[in-house]
Amino acid sequence: MKPGPILIGIPGTRLDKESRKQLAHPAVGGVVLFSRNFEDGEQLDVLISDIRAARDPRPLICIDQEGGRVQRLTDGFTRLPPLGALGTLACSDPQKALDMAYRHGRVMATEMLACGIDLSFAPVLDLDQGSHVIGDRALSGSPSEVVRLGRAYLAGMHDSGMKTTGKHFPGHGSIAADSHIADVCDSRTYDEILRSDLLPFMELAPELDALMIAHVVYPDVDPLPAGYSSRWLKDVLRGDLAYRGVIFSDDLGMHAAKAVGGLVERTRLCLEAGCDLVLVCQPEDVRELLSVLDDGLADAGAAITRLYGRPTVNRAELVEVEREGIKEWRRWRQSLEELGYQEEANG
Fold first, then answer.
1. What total of structural domains would you count in the chain?
2. pLDDT above 70: residue 325
């Protein structure tokens, strides 16, 4: 069965009958995991094995494992600092911050891949310029520093065998409102955005396997949120920036995504605008959408297979590394956790 372009959220820690049926729907191509899907490592192994076996070709399995306040898997995993801790470190030790950015990307990706998770939606490439929802999820408020640290982070992910996803194009960090719970409008001109928020995406585009699009309206460019805008996705991203990677929507259940109509309308408009894959993360939204959606959506097989993870170690090997006390791996994990504690202590 050819995979569809919708990545769905599932409700619990096991695949129930309804979730198995949803994964078999021709419009579905993958899963996004959340904290609600995790109890412990053994349970996670079973869940991921069941998801992989649910259809052929297997679903793409994704997660948000950024660190800080956006880390879905915690117990048994490295407690990752927010990316903003790297920017703080860069103010006093720029070279060490580069090393830690690489470690952050590599440790995160290695742990996720070892569990059978293909992709973490990382890194955040927004600027820390006043957004309530971005804040310390961003590497820095400086475009050049986001590029410098972001490049090291991307290298760590790639060296682990994970594809990279920059977010939230063309930039969510300079507007205070949170698109999860409010409509968001950035009234700056395109030239202003081009000279600031867009710079990290432009500079790092050749190293980004995928991009996630912000549910933000930039009225100087298009009255529609960027994820529904062919002006942003086809003219700017594919045209002006010559970007050839995979394009994700953000979750279509977010408040700011609802401006164009119901879930079917949102899905079709995203795809028509130029998204390759769309996220529908809440189980009630998945149920509503798939109950009325036919199979007349694009074959997303090419986009999905491009993003499959290529793990360098499996979970058993990673457990053995930790048990044997391999110094470098343990030192990397400890250094990241210590950086997070320092960031918390500094408030």
1. 1
2. no
Q: How far apart are CA 308 and CA 243, in angstroms?
A: 19
Q: Which helix (H) or strand (E) holds 337?
A: helix 327-345
Which residues participate in catalysis according to the annotation? 180, 250
Tell me what percent of the residues of the chain surpass a pLDDT of 90: 86
Q: How many CB atoms lie within 10 A of CB 94?
A: 12
The distance from CA 18 to its chain's CA centroid, rounded to whole angstroms, is: 25
Cis peptide before 25 (omega within 30 of 0): no
Whole-number Å distance between alpha carbons of 51 and 149: 34
Interaxial angle between packed helices 94-114 and 327-345, expressed in degrees from 0 to 180 and rounded to the nearest 10: 120
Q: Has residue 247 been placed in a domain? A: yes
Domain interval for residue 81: 6-345
- Cβ-in-10-Å burial (0-12, 13-18, 19+) of 57 comes to middle
**3 state DSSP class of 225:** strand
Tens-place pLDDT, residues 83-97: 999 999 999 999 999
Structure tokens at 254: 């977010």
Cβ–Cβ under 8 Å, residues 286 and 9: yes
Q: What is the CATH number of the domain that holds 182?
A: 3.20.20.300
Nearest to 225 by CA among 195, 261, 200, 194: 261
Tell me, yes or no, whether 312 lies in a domain. Answer: yes
Is residue 174 within 8 A of residue 143, CB to CB? The reply is no
Instruction: State the average pLDDT for the chain.
Output: 94
**Is residue 1 included in any domain, yes or no?**
no
Mind listing the pLDDT tens digit for each residue in 247-299?
999 999 999 899 899 999 999 999 999 999 999 999 999 999 999 987 668 89
